[in-house]
């Protein structure tokens, strides 16, 4: 009987993990379209947009989100790729909420993944 209980808990954990993956992927796409793109347009209007010259596999999206969430003072005045002080000035509350959703989703997925491996 304990094996049946273990299989049921792993099934629930697997389904929960899949939901977390879809949430993380959706948050990435939503932030990229509704948060990052308007910010890039504002930066281009100020001739400050230099980040488009580089983009690893989604690295640009993560950079915008991280710099919106963490205090600008952490990065200092000479931050790589984009000025966090300017980015915070140009961002809206919605941009920061979407960035927090994205980073929180990926952090939750990472923590769950580690715990899930421990369950196996």
Automatic annotation (TrEMBL):
Q: Which UniProt keywords apply?
A: Membrane, Transmembrane, Transmembrane helix
Q: Where are the transmembrane segments?
A: 12-34, 97-117
Name of the protein = MAPEG family protein
Q: In which organism is this protein found?
A: Rheinheimera muenzenbergensis
């Amino acid at each position: 009987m304990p094996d049946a209980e273990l299989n049921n808990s792993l099934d629930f954990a697997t389904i929960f993990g899949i939901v977390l993956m879809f949430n993380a992927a959706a948050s990435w796409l939503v932030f990229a379209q509704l948060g990052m793109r308007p910010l890039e347009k504002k930066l281009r209007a100020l001739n400050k947009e230099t980040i488009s010259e580089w983009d690893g596999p989604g690295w640009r999206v993560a950079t915008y989100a991280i710099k919106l969430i963490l205090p600008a003072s952490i990065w200092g005045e000479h931050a790589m790729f984009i000025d966090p002080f300017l980015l915070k000035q140009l961002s809206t509350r919605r941009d920061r909420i979407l960035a927090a959703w994205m980073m929180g989703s990926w952090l939750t997925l990472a923590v769950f993944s580690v715990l899930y491996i421990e369950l196996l």
